[in-house]
Amino acid sequence: MHLIGKGRKCARITHSRMTATLFYTTNAAMLVLSLLTAWGIFFHGRCFNGDLKRLRQFVAAVFTVFALQRLSLFSIVRPEGIEVYASQPLVLLDITFIILVMGGTALMSRPRHYRNFTLWVLLLLIPAIFLVVNILMQTSGFYRPLFHADELLDFRRSAPIVFYGRMMFVGALLVFWAIAAGMLAEAYIHDRHERANRPLSDDVERHNGEVRAVLGWAALFVGCLIPMITTSLIIHITYNVILIVALVMTVYAYWRLVCYLRARDNGRLAPVLIVRRVPLLLDLEQGGTTPWGIRMDRNPFFSGNPMLDDVAQALGVRSTDVSEYVASLKTNLVAWISDQRLRHCAGELAHSNRKIIEIALSCGYNDLPTFTRAFKRQFGLAPSEYRKKEQKSDSRLELDPTAN
Fold it and tell me: 0.85 cut: is pTM over it?
C-alpha cells in the first residue's frame, strides 16, 4: 500500500509538471505571437493612410500591452499553488481592454474619444498607478499573493489593509471595465445608425469586418478574466489555445484586408465585386437592402430604362468601373443587363415553382409575350419548354446520382 500511495503521488507530481510545462509553452507562444502581430501589422501596409493607419497603430499598442500581460502570467505559478486575482496581469489586461475600446470607438465613427487626452488620462491613470504600486510591492517583498478566494476573507481579520486594498483594487478595475464596455456599446450603436443612413459602397464589407474583429477581441479580453479567478492551469491552457487560434485568424483577416486595398488601388477589385454581387443583386427583384448595405427602392436590373449611375450605385462601385467592365465583355450596358436578367429568369424557371407570368412581371417585363420573345431569342426555347427540359434533366440526375 505504501508503494501504491508513493506511485500515485509521483504520478500527480509528473502530471502537475506536465501541466505547468504546457501552460508555459502555450503562454510563451501567445506572448511571441502577440508581439509578432503587433509589430508585423504596424510595419506592414505602411503605404496606406486613413483608417488603416489608425488601425495599425492601435493593433500595435493593444497587442504589445497584451504581450506584457502574457509575460506577467508566468508568475502565477508558485510553489504554494496557482495565484488567483493576480494584480499585475489584471491591471495589464484592463489597460489592454481600454486601448482596444479607444481604438474601436475611433473605427466606429467616434474619433472624438481617442482624440480626447483627458479621457485617456481618466481611464489609464488609476490602472497605471495600481501597476506601479504592484511592482513596488513585489520588489520590496510586501506583495501577498492569493491562492484561493477564501484567503481574501481571512485577510479581513489578519491583514485588513491587504483586504481593503484588494477590494478597492478590484472595484476600481470593474468600474473602468464597465465604463469602457459602455463606450464600446454606444459607439457600435452609433456606427450601425450612421452606416444605415450613409452606406459606404465597396468599403462596407471591410468596415464591418473591422468592427467584428474589435467586438470579438473585446469579448476575448473579457473572457481572459475567467482563467484568472481559477486555480486550474487546464483552463489557462485551453484559453491560451483559443487566443492563439483567434490571433492567427486576425492576422489572416488583416492580410486579406491589405490585399483588398491593394487590388482596389490598382483597379483590380471592381470586376471581382461586380461578378460576385450581380447574382445577389438579381435576387432582390422588388428592391430592398443589399448585403453590402445599399438601399434600393427599385432594382435597376429590372427597370425598363436602366441608367448607368443607378446600376453602379446598386452594385456599390463607381460608374466608370461598370463601364469598363461592360466594355471588357465587348458589349453595351443594355445588352449586358438584359443578358443578366434573362439568366436570372432561367434560374428561377429551372429551380422554382413560380408561375412564368409571375417571373416575367417581377423581372421587369410588361407582359408574357415580350418575355417569351426575349427568352427564346437568347436560349432558343420558350420559357415553358426550357422549364420542362431543365426539370427533366434534374429528375434524371436524381434517379442516377452518378450521371454527369
Answer: no
